[in-house]
Amino acid sequence: MANSEILYPRTGDRQTIYLKNAITDAGITVGDYTMYNDFVNDPTGFEKNNVLYHYPINHDKLVIGKFCSIACGAKFLFNSANHTMDSLSTYPFPLFFDEWELEKTNITEAWDNKGDIIVHNDVWIGYEAVILAGVTIGDGAIIGTRAVVTKDVPPYTVVGGVPAKPIRKRFHDKTITELLKLKWWDWSEEKISQNMKAIQSGNIERMRGI
Ligand SMILES: CC(C)(COP(=O)(O)OP(=O)(O)OC[C@H]1O[C@@H](n2cnc3c(N)ncnc32)[C@H](O)[C@@H]1OP(=O)(O)O)[C@@H](O)C(=O)NCCC(=O)NCCS
């Protein structure tokens, strides 16, 4: 039976990890079996290399569901990257509080807060895609290579480009509704294993027959 508690699930492969086992930051949550592959950097450096501008003072969260596939170089860009645009200047004066004799506690005024990044289950994020703060990606969605995701992505929708736009739905609405009801990713490992062929088949009829 598969074991989501191990770091390197593929024998002899140190580029692919079950991501949750490399997470130390309390602001990041990753579900079982979600995988990250990195052939440029050490994949266990995900928090440093891929979750950017994510400062504890902001308390923003990255939540990733189960069974997601995250390709090399995908990045999550958090709120501290967004220099405030309400100010008459985008220069981050609050960061240089000593220099300008400002209150250290007001440092977060340097940027606009767009919110957490939520990635639901069974999402495939392509090579070097960038997900911006405040975005929610629905179950079963696909993010194309080098997309810049600025808006929420509905479940089972393929998006691509800069800014990312829907390319197509993966299935008919009826099938999507059924998949969202089934939530196979919440099944026990044993049940998933028993139904592997049905899951892989691309045929919802076979899932109904379980
Ligand atoms: C997004 C993706 C899944 C689309 O696959 P698809 O549905 O088979 O799409 P198609 O190749 O039929 O292309 C459909 C349209 O989307 C466009 N498109 C495809 N991928 C795109 C991308 N990454 N960015 C922008 N547009 C893209 C195509 O140009 C085409 O446009 P058109 O309708 O104007 O001609 C695929 O192109 C992709 O980016 N895969 C990610 C691969 C990857 O990063 N793997 C990492 C290892 S896990």
TrEMBL record:
Gene3D superfamilies in UniProt: Hexapeptide repeat proteins
Keyword DNA repair: no
Keyword presence, DNA damage: no
Name of the molecule in the record: Virginiamycin A acetyltransferase
Pfam families tied to this protein: Hexapep (PF00132)
CDD domains to which the protein is assigned, alphabetical: LbH_XAT
Family affiliation: Belongs to the transferase hexapeptide repeat family.
GO molecular function: acyltransferase activity
Keywords linked to the UniProt accession: Acyltransferase, Antibiotic resistance, Repeat, Transferase
